[in-house]
Write a structure and sequence with these properties.
This protein is an alpha+beta fold. Helix content is about 25%, strand content about 35%. A hairpin with a 5-residue loop joins β7 and β8. About 50% of the residues are buried.
């Protein structure tokens, strides 16, 4: 077993968990998430239309970039970079051929990118980007980067001496097409799927190399149905701004969602991005109007919600109409819903979450969620 904090030592209140996270790598939050995609222009149109992101910045031939194009979109504190290569022999193109559209970079906002590189590589991280300073008329940004699970990387971004729109090399993007936002505020957590037997390895990586602590552990008794199961460790940094659940498959009668992901993504990667809202009914109703597809929650799920969760402010019939699930912990409750995959391969999807005090991840919804996912797997013939 890992020597990191186990679930029985977990507390939602106070500083018990966060005190266990070491402070050698202060992180201020998620800076941006970069997805490699087959057609950045069309992907940007989708993320604006379906999820309510807005134009922010652009880099490509018109800005002097000769090997790729990138569209930068923003909503609340969430910044997505959608990148497509021009050269079919490039590393980006090879990544796309292997994985399809998916998350390549989870960029972390730090006070000192050079020190972040030294702290993590000295503890065993594999370098991805040597420390570099990039300047323009708006100041300078310092970068560095390390590898994590699969082909996913972390880039450390230090921008305290930069006053520009996004990053040097990018110009303002203004397509004239910006459907209204859908109420997304920030990234709540990002989930990584890894191979059987690798969960503890990567939990220890985040603990030992990046100073994270184990917030909570779920085993196959917590996350399972009659047919499939998985295990998960949630890792968090010291201030709790960054949370990375790490999933691995568990033995079951049929192929789990993690195994399906690994088969189609061709290795470990980011399974889903959980984005927070202050009004999940508004967010979900807007997204459904725009064509975003969500997992179906059986109507019978709502028969036991009141007994299991107790009083909530929202109308249960409204939540049932939109397929929004509810769970409670000792700090409060949360509301959540999961999209279907947002590309043709059954890989990356989004979770929409609204926290009403709860610090947990919806353990009481796991079985209903798994049954919904299994129904989709059965339709795809991959269960």
């Amino acid at each position: 077993m890992s020597d990191l904090t186990k679930v029985e030592n977990f507390t939602y209140s106070g500083q018990k968990i966060f005190d266990k996270a070491q402070d050698f790598l202060p992180i201020n939050g998620t800076d941006y998430v970069e997805l490699y995609v087959g057609n950045a222009k069309q992907a940007a149109h989708y993320y604006k239309t379906a999820l309510g992101f807005q134009d922010l910045a652009y880099a490509g031939l018109e800005t002097g970039v000769r090997d790729r194009t990138s569209y930068v979109l923003q909503q609340g504190k969430i910044c997505l970079v959608l990148t497509t290569p021009f050269n079919p022999e490039s590393d980006i193109a090879h990544h796309l051929i292997k994985h399809g559209d998916g998350v390549k970079v989870i960029a972390l906002w730090v006070d000192d990118a050079y020190d972040a590189f030294e702290q993590t590589t000295s503890r065993g991280a594999t370098p991805y980007m040597q420390p570099i300073t990039v300047e323009n008329k708006d100041g300078e940004v310092r970068f560095s980067g390390i590898h994590t699970y699969g082909d996913t990387v972390h880039i450390f971004v230090e921008r305290k001496n930069y006053k520009g729109l996004f990053l040097p090399g990018y110009e303002k993007l203004d397509t004239g097409y910006n459907p209204g936002w859908t109420g997304l505020k920030y990234i709540d957590h990002m989930v990584g799927n890894v191979e059987l037997g690798s969960m503890n390895k990567w939990a220890n990586f985040y603990g030992n190399v990046m100073g994270f602590a184990n917030l909570i552990t779920f085993d196959d008794k917590d996350i399972s149905t009659e047919y499939t199961a998985l295990m998960s460790k949630v890792m968090t940094n010291g201030n709790g701004y960054i949370k990375f659940p790490i999933n691995e498959p568990a033995i079951g009668k049929k192929k789990s969602q993690v195994e399906e992901y690994l088969d189609f993504y061709k290795g470990p990667g980011c399974q889903h991005i959980a984005v927070a809202t202050d009004d999940i009914v508004f967010t979900v109703s807007e997204m459904k109007k725009r064509g975003l597809e969500f997992l179906h929650v059986p109507g019978t799920y709502y028969d036991t919600v009141e007994a299991r969760v107790g009083h909530i402010s929202e109308d249960l019939n409204t939540l049932k109409k939109w397929g929004i699930m509810v769970d409670r912990d000792e700090e409060g409750y949360l509301l959540q819903i999961f999209t279907k995959p947002v590309e043709d391969r059954p890989t990356l999807f989004f979770e929409i979450i609204q926290r009403k005090g709860a610090k947990s991840f919806g353990k009481g919804n796991f079985q209903a969620l798994f049954k919904s996912i299994e129904a989709e797997q059965e339709r795809r013939g991959t269960l």
